[in-house]
């Protein structure tokens, strides 16, 4: 799940998650995460060019989205999906909810820690240079993260710690992080917009697990760019879709320059299409990570074991 302005208008129609896939050949239902931002004008443009009527269903963070699609795979709640990332795509594929050969990368972003520069200046505390420092006493009770069992952001960071320390050793870091007072929220929006002091929510925690591109929205924040997790989001047709032809048109449109050019400003992510325009300010306000960890691990094979072990520590 990615970053959106709290005041952004989300042009969506939210339906109950019960058997709401397309009812006619002109109806198309897209299920996605809570942070989706597609303007009215873009939706109108797609509907005009495709001849389809698009309905958008929001279903939580990427983890919650995946779980709901697995539970409803016998009676799909949509025709297409957008927003499952590389931490959960394996679970979706293993459970057969994605139509073969339809999975398409749409965007990417780097999961990194952000910090509130003004808070650290006011308290005369040095800002952390790497996330390895977050277990130090001076950062006690200052960090909020997302739960890896429900959040793709949290799971991405968990994978990064496994890559950094190795199997059987990453638990030591997490135990130290817990002992140092880390707060765990269910999803990114709660962590960033409620608990993070550097956002509009003015929360109590000056360090938050977020994205390198989040500072583009907040002038007084910065990101730790070393040791991030490169997150890629996908779109696909759902198995059992009542309108697979329409779903294919939508997926193609999501990869078009018309939609891709809108993504940096609306969702603070990097478009997968290299021809898409990136704001010049992103070179300094939303830079890509200097190094990344974990995205090359066999996440789908190890995810459940990691989450069980993490749950034993934080349960």
UniProtKB/TrEMBL annotation:
One of its GO terms (cellular component) is outer membrane-bounded periplasmic space. The lineage of its organism: unclassified sequences, metagenomes, ecological metagenomes. It comes from freshwater metagenome. InterPro entries: ThiB-like. Keywords: Signal. PANTHER family: ABC TRANSPORTER SUBSTRATE-BINDING PROTEIN (PTHR30006:SF2), THIAMINE-BINDING PERIPLASMIC PROTEIN-RELATED (PTHR30006). The keyword Signal applies. This is Unannotated protein. One of its GO terms (molecular function) is thiamine binding. GO terms for biological process: thiamine transport. The keyword Signal applies. Pfam families: SBP_bac_6 (PF13343).
